[in-house]
């Protein structure tokens, strides 16, 4: 265990960390990489989801920034808009007492407003690659004073979809910069690419048996495609998540699932790359505040998002890549909390499930699909719990007389049943049919059909539709790479 005050952190940042609540000691990735970062070393940092990588790269970057110099000195690149906003907020909190300005810069925001904010002289910019490149080309951003560059979700940023953009971005930054790359996953071939962009990087990998966090209980349900939706709602009636994220493979899938869940009375909203930024932001803030209980998402929400209260992650469709599985389920079980991840596997996808287990070195336990009757019991149990709470409060004096009168007329089981029925939110059984999808499979030499669907959706999920079309060829190459890797 390492205390933050053993890491050579300055007073204003220590003060901020103390105020952040729950930061009693440094996590292993923080303890191991902050000193290296402070020494000015290039670092590739890999540690499980939810273990505080943001502060691990944020603290050394903030330490190096001169508040008097109103120029961009630190640049963080993240793959999605929501993540850029979140990282910017976390950095802002850590840098507060040093008086630094942090600005998120991402697609879907008014260009003019962004240009104005950039002119205000932020010290740190957290950007998505596409919008950052736009600014670089228009010369509305200056990165020639950047001394620290970070790629958050580095393996994703150095993947086929983003690598060219990242190379262009890094080329614009002075070569004597410090470069920090962080992610929960770092496939070997990506690490090799990473090394070409850095100077003698120190590789820090927080050792653990599994790639996934041990406080996430992992399950799978074997279920036919057509039964998936009913199984999902039955499971949720039993699990009663505080907040849940459901991942679907495509945007269309997310839309259909959201409609279906709403039809059955769940407070659900969808998020994917075809929605306006206004809608994306409002859905996410409603989810964070608990106004909606279920977020249905494409992989646009798979990486980095830190939302407290997410108790369950459902992979309605199993992801193609084991890495994607790791990031998706990592939206729960963060900062020491527990969580559950449940993946739906059609009979033809069992081999793919075993591949994920093997690559991530984790055990995914079988769960039997519950029946509708079991789901009903789950809902009633909720009501029973509420009733018991009221009984234990012992404030029933005002009701006793009426209760005895009722008991003269009806038997007690009938009366309690009626009370339970009145208090139970009975699930609407609206029939829901989703468009059919192909199963994910592990095949030699590529998996073009559904994987390209998945990838394209994911790319546009990042809000760069224009480029998506141009990069079709590269995407195909990418799939082959990935599938071959999967067979290793
Ligand atoms: N030392 C610490 N003690 C307690 N909580 C911490 C500590 N460091 C970070 N946290 C909190 O833990 C949560 C997860 O941190 P963060 O989002 O940086 O994880 P991550 O490793 O980047 O995860 P991912 O791989 O999913 O991006 C955040 O809410 C953060 O504020
Ligand atoms: Mg992160």
From TrEMBL:
What InterPro entries would the database entry show?
A: DEAD/DEAH_box_helicase_dom, DEAD/DEAH_RhlB, DEAD_box_RNA_helicases, DeaD_dimer, Helicase_ATP-bd, Helicase_C-like, P-loop_NTPase, RNA-helicase_DEAD-box_CS
What is the enzyme's class at the highest EC level? Answer: hydrolase
Cite the residue spans of the region called Disordered: 440-488
Q: Which GO terms describe its cellular component?
A: cytosol; ribosome
Give its E.C. classification number: 3.6.4.13
Q: Name the domain of life.
A: Bacteria
An example of a GO molecular function for this protein is: ATP binding
Q: Return the Basic residues bias intervals.
A: 474-488
The alphabetical list of record keywords is: ATP-binding, Cytoplasm, Helicase, Hydrolase, Nucleotide-binding, Stress response
Q: Where is the Helicase C-terminal domain?
A: 215-375
Q: Does the keyword Hydrolase apply?
A: yes
GO BP annotations, alphabetical order: response to cold
User: What single Pfam family name could you report for this chain, choosing any that match?
Assistant: DeaD_dimer
The residues covered by the Helicase ATP-binding domain are 34-204
Q: What catalytic activity does the UniProt entry give for this protein?
A: ATP + H2O = ADP + phosphate + H(+)
Q: Motif range for Q motif?
A: 2-31
- Domain DEAD-box RNA helicase Q, first and last residues per copy: 2-31
Q: Which residues cross the membrane?
A: none
Would you identify the family this protein belongs to, as annotated? Answer: Belongs to the DEAD box helicase family.
Read off the PANTHER family from this record: DEAD-BOX ATP-DEPENDENT RNA HELICASE 47, MITOCHONDRIAL, DEAD-BOX ATP-DEPENDENT RNA HELICASE CSHA
Which protein, by its recorded name, is this?
ATP-dependent RNA helicase CshA
Organism the protein comes from? Gracilibacillus boraciitolerans JCM 21714
| Organism classification | Bacteria, Bacillati, Bacillota, Bacilli, Bacillales
């Amino acid at each position: 265990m390492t205390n933050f005050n053993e890491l050579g952190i300055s007073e204003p940042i220590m003060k901020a960390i103390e105020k952040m609540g729950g930061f009693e000691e440094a996590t292993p990735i923080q303890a191991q990489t902050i000193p290296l970062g402070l020494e000015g070393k290039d670092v590739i940092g890999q540690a499980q989801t939810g273990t505080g990588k943001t502060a691990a790269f944020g603290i050394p970057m903030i330490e190096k920034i001169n508040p008097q110099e109103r120029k961009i000195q630190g640049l963080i690149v993240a793959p999605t808009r929501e993540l850029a906003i979140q990282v910017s907020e976390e950095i802002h909190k850590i840098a507060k007492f040093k008086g630094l300005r942090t600005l998120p810069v991402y697609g879907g925001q008014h260009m003019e407003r962004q240009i104005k904010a950039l002119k205000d002289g932020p010290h740190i910019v957290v950007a998505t690659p596409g919008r950052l490149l736009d600014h670089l080309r228009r010369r509305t951003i200056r990165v020639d004073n950047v001394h620290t560059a970070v790629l958050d979700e580095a393996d994703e940023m150095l993947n086929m979809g983003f690598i060219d953009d990242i190379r262009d971005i890094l080329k614009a930054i002075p070569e004597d910069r410090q470069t920090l790359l962080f992610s929960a996953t770092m496939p070997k071939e990506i690490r090799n690419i990473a090394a070409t962009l850095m100077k003698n990087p120190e590789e820090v990998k927080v050792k653990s048996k599994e790639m996934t966090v041990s406080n996430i209980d992992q399950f799978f349900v074997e279920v036919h495609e057509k039964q998936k939706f009913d199984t999902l709602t039955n499971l949720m009636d039993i699990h009663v998540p505080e907040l849940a994220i459901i991942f679907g493979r495509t945007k269309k899938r997310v839309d259909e699932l959201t409609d279906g869940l709403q039809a059955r009375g769940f407070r659900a909203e969808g998020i994917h790359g075809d929605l306006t930024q206004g809608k994306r932001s409002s859905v996410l803030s409603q989810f964070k505040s608990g106004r909606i209980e279920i977020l249905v998402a494409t992989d646009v929400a798979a990486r980095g998002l830190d939302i407290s209260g997410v108790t369950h992650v459902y992979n309605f469709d199993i992801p193609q890549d084991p890495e994607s599985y790791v990031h998706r389920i990592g939206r729960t079980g963060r900062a020491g909390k527990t969580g559950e991840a449940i993946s739906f596997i059609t009979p033809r996808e069992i081999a793919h499930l075993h591949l994920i287990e093997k690559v991530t070195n984790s055990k995914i336990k079988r769960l039997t699909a519950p029946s509708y009757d079991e789901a009903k019991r789950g809902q009633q149990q909720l009501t029973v719990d509420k009733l018991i709470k009221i009984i234990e409060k012992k404030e029933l004096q005002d009701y006793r007389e009426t209760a005895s009168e009722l008991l003269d007329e009806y038997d007690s089981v009938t009366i309690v049943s009626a009370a339970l029925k009145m208090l139970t939110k009975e699930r609407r059984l609206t029939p829901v049919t989703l468009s059919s999808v192909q199963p994910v499979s592990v095949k030699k030499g590529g998996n073009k059909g559904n994987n390209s669907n998945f990838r394209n959706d994911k790319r546009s999920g990042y809000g760069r539709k224009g480029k998506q079309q141009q990069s079709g060829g590269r995407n195909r190459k990418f799939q082959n790479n990935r599938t071959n890797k999967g067979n290793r």
